[in-house]
Amino acid sequence: MAKNKKSETVDKKTVIEQSNELFDFNGVWDYAPSPEGTSHVKLKERYDLYIDGKFVAPSSGKYFKTVNPATDEELAEVAYGNEQDVDKAVKAARVAYETVWSKLSAKERGKYIFRIARLMQEKARELAVVETLDAGKTIRESRDVDVPLACNHFFYYAGWADKLEYAFPNRKTQALGVAGQIIPWNFPLLMAAWKIAPALAAGNTVVLKPAETTPLTAMLLAEIIHESGLPAGVVNIVTGYGDTGAAIVNHPDVNKVAFTGSTNVGKIIQKAVAGTGKKLTLELGGKSANIIFEDAPIDQAVEGVVNGIFFNQGHVCCAGSRLFVQESVADMVIQKLKDRLDTLYVGNPLDKNTDIGAINSKAQMETILKYIEIGKNEGADIYESKCSIPKKGNFIRPTLFTDVAQSSRIAQEEIFGPVLSVQTFRTIDEVIQKANNTPFGLAAGVWTDKGSRIFNLTTKLRAGVVWANTYNKFDPTSPFGGYKESGFGREGGMHGLGAYLKFER
Amino acid sequence: MSTNKIHKKVPDFRLSPTVDKVGVEERVARFQTRSIKNESKMQGLKMVLNMIDLTTLEGKDTPGKVRQLCYKAQHLHDVQPDLPTVAAICVYPSMVAEAKKALGNSGIKVASVSTAFPSGQAPHEIKIMDTRFAVENGADEIDMVISRGKFLAGEYNFVFDEIAAIKEACGSARLKVILETGELASLDQVRRASDIAMYAGADFIKTSTGKIQPAATMQVTYTMLCAIKDFYLKTGVKVGMKPAGGISNSKLALHNLVMVKETLGAGWLNNEWFRFGASSLANDVLMQIMKQTTGHYQSADYFSID
Asked: Is there a cis peptide before residue A231, judged by omega within 30 degrees of 0?
């Protein structure tokens, strides 16, 4: 029983500092393991390339392994496509575009896309489990976020297919032709949906390359597309590494390149595409700011910040990796952040109670650990969650750095992991300046009870998305994209449709 | 025993922290995705049973009804061994003496509503007398209602002083302060009323009388748990939480425990600091416990209704 006798003399500061001992988030009662079943999933031993409506072996005969990052177990072998395979895929896409897809009425195009969406919904559970196995993300996220959102993107763009003249009134639109698309490993199926759905709705054909660490759901999507009866060659999926992607970018018969991934690769692609007449959209890295003002609903702000950075292990291009807190509430916010970190469950991604899953790959794990070392060496205060982590597999405790300066590398460079840097500010002008003082500009979050302040900030923050009193909200109807080194072009909504069209007037 | 006291240093209640409803709803939805299985489910169900304030608050209550309920409180389901008892019986002041006698030295507490429950629309002296009567008859705990009319009119000092006066009348009995959140309209107001009650000496804050809908929604309970956490950080005093009304099934009760665990931690996961005000919850929990034990659901006829 707590004694209240001392309460008048207890110093506020000491209580806050003791808080970690005051709240015991692990004792007494814990959740029993509750893993999602995998018996309904039948993975093949080997996945081939999907070209011209057929599953074909790579011309080199080479395959690479894809592993479960939570257990290091091998899941399947996947074809390593080379220049020749890409050329075959682009040719198939060109023929499909010229002879079938561009001749089809828009209404019929829409029907195919609707059919893909419905088939994905039917196989939602299988897709979610495979996504979790291959990418290490939690089943809670793949089941509640990735797969439903991916389906919704197909549904949304299916609806636009025969209404392009309403999306762009008084303009005459024309499909581009063959779109080459390269997607990252953080949201494998969702990114495939972001890319394929608008491209098809606008009347293009597609050659898509999934990331080398997460090719499986793209191959399941290929099977779904095959089952939907989509004409051969309209969607081609070529798995492989960076050189496979480069072959797509450099292929002379590709009309449009869409890339989501790192800023470094984005720059290489932009150079390669320069002067070729290929249309380009890039969705690259970020170092997005979350800003908490003193009048914010603090508990909800803390929750939003936690979801903003630790969602998908921090492998999110728009992750709110820089937190700015007004000094008057900084102690309180940091304490609450630490408490919340301690209540996060890190572990088996298939367990329904897991909040944070496995880091996607050994390479990424090394990058994150390198940045944690850099943060320590820069003299920032580190706090790691007290949660337990599995001995095997790629796991990192949710981590935050306080007392971080704007000039620290951990505040400037994208870490792409569960690491949050916390900075404080005094005035609104100061925080706007600091938030914009970055080569990136993908997203930002503002937490305040005052409506006028929100609108003031949304006009001044140089970020593609600004969320107010929430974070990481995605919807197919809403455009997404960045400023500066975070890329250009928009995906989602009508803007995303426009990126796959040329306007003849 | 009383665990809080009337605080002399109080904040300006007009400046209580704001609460974002959408954010609260999202947080609550996360608690509800927790999957409680096997041994943790069994342990949770037993904890729920042990946290129940078994309640009868009707105009037609009689000593006979109260005696039956008191027996049930001590013998929830005798065919199943190792079951805990409920935490307390909650009755009107006129039934306290009967309940006290029926419960004897079972360790089960007697809680009495007071202050002209449920409306609270009575003169100050009558509320004090109501409380004293219950305490003198042996009530271990007093469940008072706040004056919602005064609160909504912005008369926070009136509400504070009234709670403080009842706190004094309680003596060593523990005071639960019912905010009747269904009449407060917003989570901002729930937060403010929670702060007032705790600084005025509440040992427990409680959502509802059970007479007004909506009652103990998880959104409201979560808002109050956050207020308790902040109060503890500021003063070092623990305050208990009692959601009451509307929690009639095991699943919802378990999700409430998840919410307590992840907000306040293990220190609050016992009936000293957390209670359910409920009349029909116990039998649903018993049904689930039997299901966990035998592997089969039994019909409601196998569980006594008192």
From this structure: no
